[in-house]
Amino acid sequence: MTAVLTPLPTSARPAPPSAARIGLSRVGLELRLFFRERQQVVFSFAYPVVMLVIFASILGTEERPGGIPFAQYFLAGIAATGIMLTSFQAVGTAVAGERERGQLERLQLLGTPPVAYFAGKAGQVLVTAGVQLALLLPVARYGYDVLMPVDLAHWATFLWVAALGALAGTVLGLAASALPGSATATNTAISALAIVLQFFSGVFFGFLESPGWMQQAAALFPLKWLTQGMRSAFLPEEAGAFEVAGGWEHGRTALVLAAWVIIGVMVCMRTFRWRRGEG
Amino acid sequence: MTTTELAPLPVGSGGPAGVTVRGLTKRYGVRPVLDGLDLEVRRGECFALLGPNGAGKTTTIEILEGVRPRDGGDVDVLGEDPAVAGRGWRDRIGVVAQGEGGQPALSVRETLDHFAGYHAVSRPTAELLSAVGLEESVGVRVERLSGGQRRRLAVALGLQGRPELIFLDEPTTGMDPVARRRFWELIRELRSDGTTILLTTHYLDEAAELADRVGVISEGRLVDVAPPDELGAALRRESTVSWLEAGVRRRVRTASPSAVLRDLLAAHAEVPGLTVIRPGLEDVYLQLVGAAPTTSEGDLR
Predict the structure, then answer these.
(1) What does the radius of gyration of chain B's CA atoms come to, in whole angstroms?
(2) Is A25's CB within 8 Å of B114's CB?
(3) Which of A3, A33, A105 is facing B105, going by the closest CB pair?
(4) B299 pLDDT more than 60
(5) Residue A16: its chain B contacts at CB < 8 A?
(6) What is the pLDDT of residue B294?
(7) CA A260, A261, A262: angle at the middle one, nearest 5?
(8) B50-101: per-residue pLDDT in tens?
(9) Among B3, B60, B103, the residue to mutate for chain A (most A Cβ within 10 A)
(10) Do B95 and A112 count as a contact with CB atoms less than 8 A apart?
(11) Cβ neighbours of residue A184 under 8 Å, at least 6 residues apart?
(12) Residue B159's closest CA among B214, B245, B227, B95?
């Protein structure tokens, strides 16, 4: 008989690696898996660019309230949508699929702390959303003469709005993945919600042009605030007068997005499951 | 290697039990799956759980792994209750479940290298690869592995954290005979290192080959437990005497085959097709789970 395994150590076993260490290694793994899924990569990175090209080509000569060129207004909306798709929709469908294929069961059997798994998803979303925006902005700037944020303060606004929106989308995607039913059913529900929210939240049309009930419904969800925050970074100061509240409402934007992150985390803690059915 | 004899349990075993289960119950909806199951696996022992599909083997194992809640009964695994035990406990347990749970887009090496970081201590990837015979597939993505190769990767992942106790749920399903033999060697080696092993299997030769003791589950209860060649002691005392009489095969089950043979030989000068068969593990198993006819086809007149 060939002895191929070294014997068990007799000394006491050290504690398992920390959740932070596993979380960090999961960010690397999630990114590697993301970039190996070609369809996912193409969709995530090409969708906002393609939408910008289509809408700016058709409606390029139109103006939004305050004399804002259409492409300028639309960039803010499609950037926000891109973030929602790479966070909420991509995470929600990925987690439901991983659960259905038994990949989460493997993580459970290894004693993976749920927070390390969440961190892996969040890290992957932040990086891919960053790449997505890094591809979208130059197309808007050089293809359609869209002005970029005018100074450091506006860039800072852009960054915190994008990061907070991506985090809210990630935890809400994780929460939505726990919806009952098959992964296919979950994916359909998540995609439908994402599409409806885009139309409600002032991505394609001027938010003020939508009816009051739609504005109020949209204000409950993060995408409206993410879009408004993006406008505040890209549009000139005076365009804030054409928002519902007559200003950019940075405080409220931060509050609503942060509240969604917290609500999402609390829902995940209570409803996250490693396997389908009980246990 | 031809020996089927297992080495005696390593020194130092026989301390606290590896697994102790008393009166375990579990229902799915109104259907009882486990109905007062008792089970004891000693430290350092290789224990095989046999039983038909739906008898409760996987449910039992999942409760012991702490991934499925139980309805009643006491469970102790390595000194802790799996329902509430933490990560430190889980790191001492290795699991080869029926599902694969691998990432299809990762190669074998990437899979092993990544999951090594989840354990306090882990076996080197090279060592695991040679232990399960996946050296040549190290760069192959999981999605391109055969079913048997995926099983072997699952075994490697189960062993990776140097567990004190390893659960193997139908580990050799889909493996070819060579891979199965290799896996048996591995299990014997783990056992001689002092690892406690609890496995379920449908292959009775596997149980006979590997296990110190075999337990048979039927309808949510443990109906018998013994070393493989002593299982169903009462059933084993019954041999089957069989012969041809006017071209028709006659069979008699008896606890005293010698007496039957004496009668036969006294009555006939020549007894064609005469055999005496002692029941094997498979016969005993089938009787225990109620899947074999219990009455003989003919009686001696």
Answers:
(1) 23
(2) yes
(3) A33
(4) no
(5) 87-88, 90-91, 118-120
(6) 47
(7) 90
(8) 988 888 999 999 999 999 999 999 999 999 999 999 999 999 999 998 887 7
(9) B103
(10) no
(11) none
(12) B95
Q: Mean of the per-residue pLDDT values for chain B?
A: 87
How do residues B97-137 score in pLDDT, each as one tens digit? 888 778 899 999 999 999 999 999 999 999 999 999 999 99
CB-nearest partner of B91 from A4, A111, A278: A111
A269 in Cβ contact with A175 (< 8 Å):
no
Read off the tokens for A134: 């890094």
Report pTM. 0.85
Name the CATH code of domain B1-85+194-228 (choices 3.40.50.300, 3.30.70.2520, 3.40.50.2000, 3.20.10.10): 3.40.50.300
Residues of chain B with CATH 3.40.50.300: 1-85+194-228
Backbone angles phi, psi at A28, to 5 degrees: -60, -45
Q: B30: how many CB neighbours lie within 10 A of its CB?
A: 5
Residue recorded with tokens 């469970």: B75
